[in-house]
Design a protein that fits this description.
Number of strands: 14
Distance between the termini: 32 Å
Number of domains: 2
Number of helices: 11
Oligomer: single chain
CATH topology of the largest domain: L-2-Hydroxyisocaproate Dehydrogenase, Chain A, domain 2
Bound molecules: nicotinamide-adenine-dinucleotide, (2S)-2-hydroxybutanedioic acid
Helix content: 40-55%
Length: 330
C-alpha cells in the first residue's frame, strides 16, 4: 500500500489504553510502512473526546513526518467516512473475574452501528481489524451490518495469541524467535483457543521433535498461551495494552505488506468451510497474505488431538454467534 496519498486510518477507542500504545506507532509508519503517509481519524464516545484531543496534541508534538492529519469524532458515521483501514479497539475491556462471553451484550451493540457506518461511508478498499472483545464475534456483528463490504475485509485479532505462543515455544526450545515458523492459533480469541505446534518448525526441524515433551505441551504451553490475557489482568490490574497494540500493528502490516515466504501467521477471518469450521464464522486460522488478501493455509493434516481442540473452540464461536443472533445483532 506504499502511497503518497495519505491512507485514512480510523481508530476507535482512541483514548483508551490500547489506543495510547497504538496511535504513535501508526503515526511513525510502523502500521503501513515507512513510505506511506497516514491521516488518523480518532473515534471516541463523547466522554472520551477530551482525552483524544490531548493525545492528538502529543501526536503533533512528535512531529512525525508521515502524519498528514488528525481528526477526532464522536460518532461512527463521520469516524469511518473515507476510512481505508479501521482498527476497532473501543469496547468495554474484561475485568477480573469476567469471561469474554459476559461482554457479548455490552459490546455487541457497539459493533452493529459501526459496521453500518463502515458500509455507508468507508473507502472501497476498507480493511477492518477488530481488537475489542469478544473480538471474533464483534467482527461477525460488524460484518453482518456491512453487506456491501466483502466479508473477507473483516478480521479479528489473534496475533497477540500467536506472538505469545511464539515466545513460549522459543523459550522452551532455547531457540531464537526468528527460528520459529508455522505456528497456528485456531478458533476463538478466548481461553478455548488452540495454539498448535504440530506444523511448527524450529530452525527447520519439526517443533514437536525439538521439544519432545507432550506433558509440557498439554499442561503448560496450551494453557499458558490461552490464559495469558487473564494472567496479565491479574498481574497488571488492567488488560494487556502495549502487547495488544503491537499485535494490531503486526496484523495489519502482514495483511497489507504480505507474510514472509515459507511462513504463515494467525488471524481470525471469515471461514470458507476449511478445516470443518462452518462457513461464515470468523475463526482463527493459519493464514498467509499476498496482494492485501488473506488466504487460509490449505491441506494441513489435523490429528485427533488437534481436532478435538479446534472443535471445542469453534463450538464456543457457534454459541457466541447464536447468542448475538438471539440479541438481534445479526
Ligand atoms: N484481541 C485481543 O488480543 C485483545 C487484547 C487486549 C485487549 N483487547 C480488547 O480491546 C478492547 C479495548 O481495550 P482497552 O484496554 O484499550 O480499553 P480501555 O477501556 O482502556 O479503552 C476503551 C476505549 O474505548 C472507548 N469506547 C467505548 N465505546 C466506544 C465506542 N462505541 N466508540 C468509540 N470508542 C469507544 C472508551 O471511551 C475508551 O476510551 C477491550 O475490549 C479489550 O478486551 C483485545
Ligand atoms: O484477555 C483479555 O480480556 C484481554 C485480551 O483479550 C488479552 O488476550 O490480553
Amino acid at each position: 500500500m506504499a502511497s503518497t496519498t495519505p491512507v485514512n486510518v480510523t481508530v476507535t477507542g482512541a483514548a483508551g489504553q490500547i489506543g495510547y500504545a497504538l496511535l504513535f506507532r501508526i503515526a511513525s509508519g510502523q502500521l503501513l510502512g515507512p513510505d506511506t503517509p497516514v491521516k488518523l481519524r480518532l473515534l471516541e464516545i463523547p466522554q472520551g473526546v477530551k482525552a483524544a484531543v490531548g493525545i492528538a496534541m502529543e501526536l503533533d508534538d512528535c512531529a512525525f513526518g508521515l502524519l498528514a492529519g488528525i481528526d477526532i469524532f464522536d460518532n461512527p458515521t463521520d469516524g469511518f467516512d473515507g476510512a481505508n483501514v479501521a482498527l476497532l479497539v473501543g469496547a468495554r475491556p474484561r475485568t477480573a473475574g469476567m469471561e469474554r462471553s459476559d461482554l457479548l451484550t455490552a459490546n455487541g451493540g457497539i459493533f452493529a452501528p459501526q459496521g453500518a457506518a463502515i458500509n455507508a461511508g468507508a473507502a472501497d478498499d476498507i480493511r477492518v481489524l477488530v481488537v475489542g472483545n469478544p473480538a471474533n464475534t464483534n467482527a461477525l456483528v460488524a460484518a453482518a451490518h456491512a453487506p456491501d463490504v466483502p466479508a473477507e475485509r473483516f478480521s479479528a485479532m489473534t496475533r497477540l495469541d500467536h506472538n505469545r505462543a511464539l515466545h513460549q515455544l522459543a523459550k522452551k526450545a532455547g531457540a531464537d524467535l526468528s527460528d520459529v515458523r508455522r505456528l497456528t492459533i485456531w478458533g476463538n480469541h478466548s481461553a478455548t483457543q488452540y495454539p498448535d505446534i504440530f506444523h511448527a518448525e524450529i530452525a527447520g526441524r519439526p517443533a514437536v521433535e525439538v521439544v519432545a515433551d507432550q506433558d509440557w505441551l498439554e499442561s503448560d504451553f496450551i494453557p499458558t498461551v490461552a490464559k495469558r490475557g487473564a494472567a496479565i489482568i491479574d498481574a497488571r490490574g488492567a488488560s494487556s495494552a502495549a502487547s495488544a497494540a503491537n499485535a494490531a500493528i503486526d496484523h495489519v502490516h502482514s495483511w497489507v505488506n504480505g507474510t514472509p515466504e515459507g511462513d504463515w501467521t494467525s488471524a481470525a477471518i471469515v471461514s470458507d468451510g476449511s478445516y470443518g469450521v462452518p462457513a461464515g464464522l470468523i475463526s482463527s486460522f493459519p493464514v498467509t497474505s499476498t496482494g492485501g488478501h488473506w488466504q487460509i493455509v490449505p491441506d494441513l493434516e489435523i490429528d485427533a488431538f488437534s481436532r478435538d481442540r479446534i472443535d471445542a473452540s469453534v463450538a464456543e464461536l457457534i454459541d457466541e454467534r447464536d447468542a448475538v443472533s438471539k440479541l438481534g445483532l445479526l
